[in-house]
Amino acid sequence: MQIFSCPFCGERPEVEFHFGGDLGNLRPEGFQSVSAETWSQYLYFRNNPKGVAREFWLHLPCGELFALERDTVTMQAAPGRALSHEADK
């Protein structure tokens, strides 16, 4: 079992977390003016990098979203960072 580190609760087993998506995958603005192609790109096409991926995750017990860098090859995960700190990066 993989262990992730919630910035609010510390180290926990992976079953307590829910994947939220790639950091930087911004939702298109302008509901009716967004094309079907743009919506499908947002909803279904994901980055699948070999190596470090920047993602956001939800820790289910505390309900907090946070950013996580995870290596998709080694499955090593850096400690999570509160999303408010991501703007500083």
From TrEMBL:
Gene Ontology molecular functions: sarcosine oxidase activity
GO BP terms in the entry: tetrahydrofolate metabolic process
UniProt cross-references to Pfam families, sorted A to Z: SoxD
Protein's UniProt name: Sarcosine oxidase subunit delta
Record organism: Falsigemmobacter intermedius
